[in-house]
Specification:
Membrane-bound Lytic Murein Transglycosylase D, Chain A, alpha/beta, single chain, four-stranded mixed sheet, about 30% helix, LysM_dom_sf, LysM
């Protein structure tokens, strides 16, 4: 379905003009023997006006083309090239540059720029200075639908999403040498008086009269006085730039790829651009029609060419032949070969050990090898220690209270892992100041902390546990732009801009498993089993896998009376399964009885030599209990997505050894999470203090049990997409890569 995007240009010249309601252009089908000049005369416009709306017309026109012709109303209000004229002004007694600037409604810099001696010298009574006068006309708001041969949008002056004037769009001027004037130095003339008289810098006089670098000016010296005119300075050479409105979730690499430039060139065109693009932000891009731009294809990955990389190096790194790269990227031939920063489309099955962030491949690297040694950071830790409920004067009662209160136990475990990370970071050369706050699981306590404490020097906050408290802290500290690392909350919620949801949401887990199945199912048959509570999940899965089979659950009258729930009957499976085929079964339920029913039935078929593998997109709690036999899960090679990797107790990782040495106990999952999250956060800060920007540079990181791969969702918050696919391998489990 073709969509028409309307881009509205608003020029600010002291006022904002309202949106034009009348049609802003007309269409003209080119006739035989017509030229741009004859068409322009017919519509009372210039050929340049037509080319502005039809860039391809520069290469010539033919009878297959339909041109957009600007209406007279547009041309009547089109902004003209900014011109500057000058008037001479004689400085009066006690006048200042600021006072003169106010008088002529220009800036102090405008005066100094055209009177360069004022950068170093004082304003003198009676001296003659140049007063610039700028001329430009307003433009009506223009709405241009993007069609096959229309430009994206074009203007000369515009503000970005933050209301700032795009510096690259402001007309800038420079002095252009056009010739010389002969001058014979007179009695009492000095370089300063000559610079004042001819309105040029002393250095400019010396530059073209080099003997003055080593000698004083004398009467009778014959000089070349350079003459300049003001011309518009275009730092981008012959590149024709136009305004572009950033689309939702469109990062820098996507914009660069779309317009056939590098990310470095995009930054050059937009010096005001921040670390990340915002939805609706106005930036400058090369002027290309919609048909000339490249659209990102979600079925491919993309790779940014590094310095000195050729086709052989790409083959070694990505496992892709030169012919395939050229086929997918025809612009290579147009540009005469590969160039640094070029973004290539490549097949998704490319080889190599890469992170994938928003389809863009980034090379894995060890954060510990990339940190700034000696870096110092301050972290605020907000956790529900609930010390107000623990009598520390009575060790026995305190121990019992902690043992009986699961929240306090988990909090202390998390904190113990956090401290281990701080100590290890110290060994790596990093300094960390830790400010600890007991939020006590009470809103009033958190409110008091936020009201009383000064967080101006805080680099990051770890905590609190509850999402409602995370939102409160994020809102309070948003003005300071302090990142909030939410340790455990994983629900799909709208986050504040400064929140990092460090635990992957359920939707991320489901999406990871769906992608795994799509990438690996091959010619196997897919069977979906879901209860009524997961009907919506089932329907979504059927959309993802339209060829999948599904089974309806059944219930006898007696079972209905006894409220025993619905089950899968063996004969229903017998009607679908044959031994010659291999089946992947997706089971979606939180019901432990149905879970035991299905796994038991499927295991019986496996014993009868049916080829069946069991999957789920979200692992229910009953899988970790005695309700479902581990033997059944092992026989079915059960696959599930997981936030953390399954660590084997007694393993050889250094963290577990050090933790046992310090606390004489095996670390719990909470302790491991505290360590992993804190270590990752400290290393990211030591790599780049801007956690938001570094999330795009770093890609995926992994520690003892947890992965961290942050991606931004629109303009709201960062979500961790670091998920494991785990499968039963006999009676143990392992990660599927």
């Amino acid at each position: 379905m073709n969509k028409v995007f309307t881009f509205v240009l608003v020029l600010f010249l002291g006022f904002q003009l309202s949106n034009a309601q009348d049609e802003t252009y007309r269409r003209h089908r080119v006739q035989a023997n017509e030229t741009l000049e004859t068409i322009a005369r017919a519509y009372k416009v210039s050929p340049f006006d037509i080319i502005k709306l039809n860039p391809k017309a520069k290469e010539g026109i033919d009878t297959t083309m339909v041109l957009l012709i600007p209406s007279n109303s547009i041309l009547g209000d089109k902004i003209k090239k900014r011109t500057v004229t000058f008037s001479d002004y004689k400085v009066r007694r006690k006048e200042t540059i600021f006072g003169i600037a106010q008088k002529f409604k220009i800036s102090v810099e405008d005066i100094k720029k055209h009177n360069p001696t004022l950068y170093t010298g004082e304003l003198q009574k009676g001296s003659i200075i140049k007063i610039p006068k700028y001329q430009e006309e307003a433009v009506k708001t223009v709405s241009i639908p993007v069609g096959a041969d229309t430009p994206v949008v074009a203007t000369d002056t515009v503000k970005n999403a933050s209301g700032q004037l795009l510096s690259s769009m402001q007309p800038k001027f420079k002095d252009s040498l056009v010739g010389f004037k002969k001058h014979k130095a007179k009695k009492r003339e000095t370089l300063f008086s000559l610079s004042q008289r001819f309105n040029i810098a002393i250095d400019s006089i010396k530059k073209y009269n080099r003997f003055l670098y080593g000698a004083e000016l004398k009467r009778g010296d014959r000089l070349q006085i350079p003459e300049y005119i003001q011309v518009e300075d275009n730092p981008f050479g012959d590149v024709d730039l136009v305004e572009y409105i950033v689309l939702p979730q469109e990062g820098k690499w996507r914009v660069a790829y779309k317009f056939g430039i590098t990310q470095e060139e995009l930054a050059l065109y937009n010096p005001q651009m921040g670390e990340m693009l915002k939805d609706g932000e106005l930036i400058l891009v090369p002027n290309k029609s919609a048909s000339e731009t490249d659209q990102v294809d979600e079925d491919y990955h993309y790779y940014e060419v590094k310095k000195a990389e050729g086709f052989y190096r790409l083959k070694v790194k990505l496992g892709i032949e030169e012919e395939i790269i050229r086929l997918l990227n025809p612009e290579i031939d147009k540009l005469g070969g590969l160039k640094e920063g070029m973004i290539l489309k490549i097949p998704k099955n490319s080889e190599g050990d890469f992170n994938v962030t928003d389809l863009l491949l980034t090379e894995r690297f060890n954060l510990k090898d990339s940190i700034q040694l000696g870096h110092s950071s301050t972290i605020a830790v907000m956790l529900p220690f609930k010390l107000n409920q623990v009598d520390l004067s009575n060790p026995s009662d305190a121990r019992d209270k902690i043992k009986d209160d699961e929240l306090i136990t988990n909090t202390l475990d998390f904190y113990s892992g956090l401290l281990m990370a701080v100590e290890e970071a110290k060994d790596l050369g990093l300094s960390t100041n830790v400010d600890v706050y007991d939020v006590e699981f009470r809103n009033k306590k958190l409110d008091d902390i936020l009201l009383i404490k000064d967080f101006a020097d805080t680099d990051v906050v770890i905590g609190p546990f509850l999402q409602s408290n995370v939102n409160k802290v994020a809102g309070h500290l948003s003005s300071l732009d302090i990142p909030i690392m939410s340790p455990i909350w994983s629900k799909d919620e709208q986050l504040y801009d400064n929140v990092f949801q460090t635990t992957p949401a359920n939707s991320v887990l489901r999406a990871k498993m769906v992608k795994y199945i799509k990438d690996n199912i091959g010619d196997r048959e897919l069977l979906i089993i879901a209860d009524e509570e997961n009907e919506a999940v089932k329907q979504q899965l059927l959309l993802e896998f339209p060829d999948a089979m599904s089974i309806d659950l059944t219930q006898t009258e007696k079972e209905k009376e006894e409220k025993r729930g619905k089950f899968v009957k063996r004969d229903a499976l017998e009607e679908l399964l044959v031994q010659e085929k291999e089946y992947w079964v997706l089971l979606e339920t939180d019901n432990q009885v149905l879970g035991a029913n299905v796994t038991s039935l499927l295991n019986a078929f496996v014993i009868e030599e049916f080829k069946i593998t069991l999957f789920t997109t979200l692992k229910a709690k009953f899988y970790d209990e005695d309700i479902v036999a581990n033997e059944h899960l092992a026989n079915l090679a059960f696959h599930f997505p997981s936030v953390d990797n399954i660590r084997i107790s007694g393993g050889s990782n250094s963290f577990e050894k050090e933790y046992k040495k310090q606390y004489n106990i095996t670390p719990s999952k909470w302790a491991v999470r505290g360590y992993d999250l804190t270590m990752d956060t400290l290393l990211r800060l030591a790599y780049n203090e801007n956690l938001r920007a570094s999330s795009y540079l770093i890609g995926e990181t992994e520690y003892v049990e947890n992965k961290f791969h942050y991606e931004r969702m629109g303009n709201k918050g960062f979500y961790n997409r670091g998920v494991y696919i785990i499968k039963y391998d006999g009676f143990s489990t392992k990660e599927v890569r």
